[in-house]
Amino acid sequence: MREKLKYFSDFLAKRFIEQGMDEDIAQFLNMLINIAIVFVLWYLIHYITKTILLTAFKRFTDKTKTTFDDFLVKSNFPRYISNIFPLLLLIVAVPITFEEYPQLLKVFETLVDIYIIILIVLICRSLLRTTTNYLKRHEKYRDKPIESYTQVLMIVFWSIGFIFIFSELTGRSVLGFLLSLGAASAIILFIFKDTILGFIASIQVSVNDIVRIGDWITFSKYGADGFVTEINLATVRVQNWDNTYTTIPTYNLIADSFHNWRGMQDSPGRRIKRAINIKQSSIRFVNENDIEKFKEFGLIAPYIKERQEEINNYNLQMGVNKKHLLNGRHQTNLGVFRQYALSYLKAHPQLNQEMTMMVRHLAPTTQGIPIEIYCFSKDKRWEFYEAITADIFDHLIAAVPYFDLQLFESPSGDDIIKAVREMSRESI
């Protein structure tokens, strides 16, 4: 086969020499013509194989139900494969075409070898992208940082490719290049420090299940508050609630502290934890008239009746002097309000009654006594959660005066002016 190709390659050179042309000029002219013929053949074979493969892949993907072959087409896998047949032509034709010119032959063989290396890397990259996109469609892998591992493998492939290209260009062996590279390992580690840290962080994030794609995280240091949309080798991409994007270095997810709201998203309820401050001077013991009024409040009527009977029986047994309310046991308007707030929460249809629910009394402060509401809403969506919270506190704030209580509020300018005017009137 080679002899036949050699015969056709030298055919024009022989004819030029027979016509009286100088042998060197005839050989050089013959080489140029052969180069042109090889180039035309390479283009035709490349065009034909590309057209055939793309058409065949398209028809095949249209008939199959799997999406893997669709991603192969999107990642240009057929286009890269179509380069193999023209490449075979170059491997056979280049040594014959430049046989009379060893130096040019060496240059073109080096270029062909580099072409082969790059083509192999591109095919590997295409397969990696296809596999990544295919896995991301499955629910099992959708929240995993697959992009990080893909990028690491691509760095490895390109690094190996560049090592072989360097070996081809310099004529040094790959082993010798790697040995000399070891001496510069400190510099390489410094250059790829972020990549190495990102790779290690990606593994830790995945193994320890720290963050998944779709998690709601809050990272105050970087101003991130939203859903994780992408986890790759170097960064984590977060879409904030205002539809802006924040990128966070992957390594910082294990180096710094941040909030991951996945537990709340997976739980049957979202926590409501908020307090209202009661003015301390408005707290007092309740009297008989107050008891009768409170019995008219449907939510706490049974509690008031049962509680008051318990207190009356105790005071009677202990022989308490009823002249002063300080003696014995008595209910307070704040205690009744706390019970009313708890009964209101238990009757609220949008709260999860199976999760922790309480109204607790916190330590007094300079802003009054905080009465904290602690419960969980059934609906975890932000806008509905805020609406439920507002509905609860609208009602409780409006209910405070019915228990002869007052909310604490820092005095405004109008309050100060009003107080000064009253003092002026009294002085007159």
UniProtKB/TrEMBL annotation:
- Mention any one GO cellular component term assigned to this protein in its UniProt record: plasma membrane
This one is known as Miniconductance mechanosensitive channel
Q: Locate the transmembrane regions by residue number.
A: 80-98, 110-128, 149-167, 173-192
The source's superkingdom equals Bacteria
The keyword Calcium is annotated on this UniProt entry: no
Q: Report any Pfam family annotated for this entry.
A: MS_channel_2nd
Q: Which GO terms describe its biological process?
A: cellular response to osmotic stress
Where is it located? Membrane
Q: Does the keyword Transmembrane apply?
A: yes
Offer an example of a GO molecular function term for this protein: mechanosensitive monoatomic ion channel activity
Q: Which UniProt keywords apply?
A: Membrane, Transmembrane, Transmembrane helix
Query: Which species expresses this protein natively?
Result: Salinimicrobium sediminis
Listed Gene3D superfamilies:
2.30.30.60
Q: Where mainly found?
A: membrane
Domain (Mechanosensitive ion channel MscS): residue spans on this chain: 194-262
